[in-house]
Specification:
Length: 88
């Protein structure tokens, strides 16, 4: 199970958008490689606030409902990241 996004996933949004998810974070040139571990499951659940998470016992897929949208994926962190990107 993955617990945080990858640097590649962090780069799916702009640096400014990524920093907007945090109250205080130090700006760095290699921001995606350095800060990607800060975007973990707990941070995303906290940011999304009202989120429903479930896992299918049949196929093991994660289901996330946030902002009246449904997301599904094999990894919880990836599914939450999709919801985070849609929020912006």
């Amino acid at each position: 199970m993955k617990y945080h996004i990858t640097p590649r996933q962090a780069k799916e949004v702009t640096e400014e958008v990524f920093y907007s998810f945090f109250n205080e974070i130090v700006h760095r040139k290699d921001w995606a490689n350095y800060h990607h571990k800060k975007m973990d499951i707990g941070k995303m659940i906290d940011y999304l606030d009202e989120v429903i998470i479930s896992r299918s016992v049949i196929d093991g897929m994660w289901s996330v409902v946030a902002f009246n949208k449904h997301y599904e994926g094999k990894e919880l962190v990836d599914t939450l990241w999709e919801a985070m990107k849609d929020e912006i």
